[in-house]
Amino acid sequence: MKQIFTFLFLFMCALASKAQENVMICDFDNAYPDVSAWGDVAFTTTNAPDGTLASGQMGVLTIAPDNENGSMIIQLDFTFDPHDYVGISLDAQVTEAGLTPAFIFKVEQSTQDNSVAQVQDWTYNVRYSGSGDWEAINLPFSDNVISELDAKIANDPNFPADQYDKIELAPGAWDNQPEFTMNIDNIMLRTSWDDGSGIPLTKIAAFTIWNDGNGTIKATGVNGNPVSLKAYSTSGQEVVEGVNEVQIGVKGVYIVKATDGKATNTQKVVVH
Fold first, then answer.
1. In the chain, at which end, N or C, are there fewer CB atoms within 10 A of the end residue's CB?
2. Has residue 197 been placed in a domain?
């Protein structure tokens, strides 16, 4: 019995550690999934220059003027839930100095039609600076991706949010840019940004959340440690907060965030 318990404990710890790590999607060297391009975007690879953020092989995108219909597509060999990450990062360089194309991106499920599963960010909030140098680009899920995903869950509580396996990047889409070349490398799913901002989300934590279906949400921490609970609507508005237990009085779908100061757990909750 002790051996079984030890195995389960180590297994859960491994899951927790894995869930909290950044995930390298594509470095065009060791991590190199199926990458393609279509329409107004062409893709190839070449050796990265020394002394830059890139290393080894890098991707090279050639984007037609205004990019009305084209993107780079990364087909992953694993699935993920966008709730578990703060967003996508990549290192990028636009070789034509002075150009500031926006980054438009989509997250998709290869097993479902895009109209059903696709979530995207068309806000133009993130742009290349125009420096002509390599830059670290952060594309957050918080702007539109999570709200779109939560709306799908609200419409269908059984929606498979953890089955995303495709990322589509469309630099300069409908952005009044001339033709340009973009070098890219080190594309990652991020649990937090380098400056520590963003909320590292994990599915496995050192406590348990349970829901009685009628609006009572409880959490139990290790050794009785207090667990802070906050419930949000699918639009991101905080509804209620408390310690170890909260009560939600209105039927619907909510996102509950729990933390004990060391670990964080988020969970969809349906109140009947």
1. N
2. no
